[in-house]
């Protein structure tokens, strides 16, 4: 009879443990699902924030690139002007030396 009572208590204890484990497992699943939802929401917030920040940085980069292009164009235009001035000076001096050579050759042939 003691064995029957012991077996009954063991069966009841096993059943109680299984019910407790089932409740624990259900709560665990619920908390995991809540954490996944929370994690998904935070990831979406971070993605949105990251995309916004990247768009801001891209706009800033485009603006700075445009400023750099304008500065380079101004510098190149100044360089072109300077080169054109130097070229004109070189042609003027070359022409003067050429005239000087022609006059010298002409004078040396006449004399």
Summarize the structure.
By secondary structure, this protein is mostly helical. The protein has 1 helix and no strands.
Average pLDDT level? 93
Reading the helices and strands in chain order gives H
Which radius of gyration do the C-alpha atoms yield?
46 Å
Q: What composes the largest sheet?
A: none
Point out poorly predicted stretches: none
How many strand elements? 0
Structural class: mainly alpha
The end-to-end distance, rounded to whole angstroms, is: 156 Å
What structural keywords apply?
111 residues; mainly alpha; 1 helix; rod-shaped
Description:
The structure is a single chain. By secondary structure, the protein is mostly helical. The protein has one helix at 2-110. It is rod-shaped and about 155 Å long. The model has no long low-confidence stretch (mean pLDDT 93).
Fold blueprint:
Layout: H1 2-110
